[in-house]
Amino acid sequence: MQQTAIAAAPPPPGFAGGRARPRSLDFALFIATVLWFQCSQFLSADAANGLDRAFDLGSAQPLAQAVLLLFLVVCGLALLRAIERRLAPLRLALGLPRRSTSRAEWATGAAIGWALALACVLPMALARALNIQLWTESRAFLLLGLGLATLAVATLANALAVYGYGFHRLIDATGPVRATLVLVGLATLNTALTPTADGTPDGTRILVALLFSLLLALCWLRTHGLWLLWGLSFAWAAATAVLFDLPLNGDNTLGSIVDTRAAGPAWLTGGTYGPAAAALTILFVLAAVPILVRVTDDYAWKYTHPPLVPGGRDVTIAPPAAHVEMEQAAQNAQSSESAQAFNPASLVQIQPTTPARAAPPPDTDS
After folding, report:
1. In 3D, which of 217, 206, 213 has the Cα closest to residue 279?
2. Rounded Cα gap, residues 276 and 203, in angstroms
3. Is the pLDDT of residue 242 over 70?
4. How far apart are the C-alpha atoms of 205 and 202, rounded to whole Å?
5. Which of 11, 135, 222, 266 is the most buried (most CB within 10 A)?
6. How far is it, in rounded angstroms, from Cα 231 to Cα 111?
């Protein structure tokens, strides 16, 4: 009985390339990514202010800042990738692989983000805490387009730096559970150190930031890509700041065709910080976690589980010695019989015959 060994198929080109890398290098790359992202935010803001003073960008300044931020992030991550000599393509290293389901993943994340924002705004509307006015001039639609474009670029830059390249380096260094805890801790610390206006419920704001960063990390862990994460973060930001015209993490500068004023308790509206500091948002983000897990079952099975490769070992059972001797004796007897049957002397050899000469013609003279 013999079971043939099946060789495992070579893994597809991934983030780690073809050789092992020390964990300290991956952790150092994560720290470098976070620091570069912070520097990129300051550099892009300063460059956008300079461009505004030189060319009077006006309402296009936030979009210019977001584009500069994305450019700096991609350049920095490409440099880090070159330093570690990774063999994977750049978009795969950034967390944007080419997939047949990329649009469906993005749309799924956008649906979750939109539903989350709507769930936060709906209690305010039912409590009559929102004063809404519509602005239908042509400039309002221009500001609407600029706001959506700005949030699309800004959320992509944040996803690439923090949850794409940086988070994967941290996973390689510490494992998925520890990496998630470290990332959530850093996001919470960054939120806690961010200054806010008086009257903002900081405890609620920090807890919401903790849960939201956990939700985004879960998006990566369930798909190993940024399509779902980018769609969720963009839809949440666009619905909150542009469509409903509510403060987004304290920022209320993005224009919209809707002019909204929220007047109500801080646990309901979040005050000047927006829904990200409302107490009800905690419940909605917690409810979004099992929903996210449920709708990403297919993606998790397809993109995060290792392929099932059948394996085996070459198993050869040696026959008994007596059986080997019997087979050897039978082979020897067969060989001797064949040799006796083949006797060259008993063969009849047919020699070629020479053609007979023709008789001479008779002598007619005699």
Report:
1. 206
2. 11
3. yes
4. 5
5. 222
6. 8
**CA torsion, ordered 164, 148, 204, 162, to nearest 10 deg:** 10
Strand partners, 132: 260
Average pLDDT over residues 264-285: 93
Distance CA 260, CA 137 (A): 16
pLDDT of 12 reads: 41
DSSP bridge pairs for 316: 2
Residue 283 C-alpha from the chain's centroid: 27
Which of 281, 185, 184, 180 lies closest to 222 in space, CA to CA? 180
Q: Which residue type is seen at 333? A: A
Which residue's structure tokens are 């013609």? 361
Q: Average pLDDT of 327-354?
A: 66
Backbone angles phi, psi at 150, to 5 degrees: -60, -45
User: So what's the pLDDT on residue 53?
Assistant: 92
Tell me the sheet residues that pair with 262.
130
In this prediction, residues 278-292 reach a mean pLDDT of 95
For tokens 């944007």, what's the residue?
96
pLDDT tens for 125-172 read 999 999 988 888 888 899 999 999 999 999 999 999 999 899 999 999
